[in-house]
């Protein structure tokens, strides 16, 4: 079903990665050629014709994919998975969404973040316990401690990119969501970090009121969810959502097990409202139920609803790289880190399913090869 004949050659400490299509979303480079990597960094990007381009099938090479919203570390988070699975599926940089809080982040960094072959940074949970309990992470109000969260960020700043606040009814059954967001804003202000925010259902707290409190650079995840909150109504994107984007609030997919609806995504894309970042919200349930759930698959679903490839590629490389402060990733430029993902495409359209069991059809990307610092970790 899938075919790829991309070329990788090693000599004298150099890796040479050739493809019929090298794509750097940040610079706009999109051409056949070869990337040369040495000592973990890109040394050269050469555009050149490839004889018999059809022999390279449908492959393309991107900067290593970045998934800012997933769950890692099964021993630490009830949602956590083995990070190596993400690496095999093309993700070379993963954002752990709220899996650890101030009470367990030091152990999490030692046992999950540092040993991982892919790069991991956290959106630290405002809850002291992170996602270590089956109960909602804010089910006990005493688990919210502003000073402890600030101290934890100061101790682990190299491993943290944001403050995670999930104000959903499940995560926050016993805490006033307005007070919760205000507490998170205090931490964000003191640490200079953005918030990664999961919305409260509108019957508890109006969507516009929630969005009005978010600041430039803050991120709303689950943006294409249909219920209990939804960014579209009557075939249009809500004004409060458009206003939030104008103020610099960012929107992330966070597909997960219940947060991606084809109808919502199609309406938003048709209205020109594209996600800033595409993420999986990969969690243990996907693994235990044997589902294929990875970033190339979610990218394929966005293409099926009309999002253009150039915008999809930005949303998994250059845009999230800037968001998480990974200045040497997400691009194919000399000096950048030699993390690459080679994607191949199905030779026919496949059935794609959203979290409401709606179906669409489209060609599907899959990771054929993954490189970390120029070394092949999947082939």
Describe this structure in words.
- The chain has 379 residues and is α/β, with parallel strands linked by helices.
- It folds into 2 domains: 7-63 and 333-378, Roll (Urease, subunit C, domain 1); 65-323, TIM Barrel.
- It is 24% helix and 27% strand.
- It contains 11 helices and 19 strands.
- Strands 6-7-8-9-10-11-14 form a 7-stranded parallel beta sheet. A 4-stranded antiparallel beta sheet has the order 1-2-3-4, with no helix packed on it. A 4-stranded antiparallel beta sheet has the order 5-15-18-19, covered by helices on one side.
- Helix 3 (146-155) packs parallel to helix 4.
- It is globular.
- Residues 1-5 have low confidence and may be disordered.
Task: Label this structure with key terms.
single chain, 379 residues, alpha/beta, Urease, subunit C, domain 1, TIM Barrel, 2 domains, 7-stranded parallel β-sheet, 4-stranded antiparallel β-sheet, 11 helices, globular, disordered N terminus
Gist of the model:
Helices cover 24% and strands 27% of the residues. It is α/β, with parallel strands linked by helices.
Blueprint (SSEs and pairs):
Layout: E1 7-11, E2 14-24, E3 29-38, E4 41-47, E5 60-63, E6 65-70, H1 83-88, E7 91-97, H2 105-113, E8 119-125, H3 146-155, E9 160-166, H4 177-191, E10 195-198, H5 207-213, E11 219-220, E12 232-233, E13 236-237, H6 239-246, E14 250-251, H7 262-270, H8 284-288, H9 295-304, H10 309-315, H11 318-323, E15 340-345, E16 350-353, E17 359-362, E18 365-372, E19 375-378
């Amino acid at each position: 079903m899938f075919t790829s004949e991309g070329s990788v050659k090693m000599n004298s400490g150099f890796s040479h990665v050739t493809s019929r299509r090298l794509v750097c979303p940040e610079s706009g480079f999109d051409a056949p050629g070869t990337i040369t990597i040495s000592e973990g960094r890109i040394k050269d990007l050469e555009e050149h014709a490839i004889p018999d381009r059809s022999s390279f099938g449908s492959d393309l090479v991107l900067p290593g994919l970045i998934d800012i919203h997933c769950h890692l570390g099964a021993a630490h988070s009830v949602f956590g998975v083995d990070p190596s699975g993400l690496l095999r599926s093309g993700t070379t940089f993963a954002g752990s969404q709220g899996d650890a809080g101030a009470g367990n982040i030091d152990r999490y960094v030692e046992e999950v973040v540092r040993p991982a072959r892919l790069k991991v940074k956290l959106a630290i949970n405002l809850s002291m316990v992170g996602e270590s309990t089956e109960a909602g992470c804010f089910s006990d109000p005493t688990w919210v401690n502003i000073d402890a969260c600030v101290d934890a960020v100061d101790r682990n700043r190299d491993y943290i990119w944001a403050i995670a606040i999930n104000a959903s009814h499940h995560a926050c059954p016993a805490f006033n969501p307005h007070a919760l967001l205000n507490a998170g804003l205090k931490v964000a202000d003191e640490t200079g970090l953005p918030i990664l925010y999961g919305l409260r259902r509108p019957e508890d707290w109006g969507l516009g009121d929630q969005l009005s409190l978010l600041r430039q650079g803050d991120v709303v995840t689950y943006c294409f969810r249909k219920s209990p909150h939804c960014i579209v109504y009557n075939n249009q994107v809500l004004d409060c959502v458009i206003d939030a984007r104008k103020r610099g609030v960012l929107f992330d997919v966070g597909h997960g097990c219940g947060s991606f609806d084809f109808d919502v995504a199609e309406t938003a894309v048709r209205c020109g409202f594209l996600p800033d970042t595409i993420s999986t919200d990969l969690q243990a349930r996907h693994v235990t139920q044997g589902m294929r759930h990875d970033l190339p698959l979610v990218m394929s679903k966005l293409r099926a609803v009309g999002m253009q490839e150039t915008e999809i590629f930005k949303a998994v490389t250059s845009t999230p790289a800037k968001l998480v402060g990974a200045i040497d990733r997400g691009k194919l430029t000399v000096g950048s880190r030699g993390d690459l993902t080679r994607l191949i495409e199905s030779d026919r359209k496949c059935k794609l399913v959203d979290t409401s069991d709606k179906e669409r059809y489209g060609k599907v990307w899959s990771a054929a090869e993954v490189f970390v610092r120029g070394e092949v970790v999947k082939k």
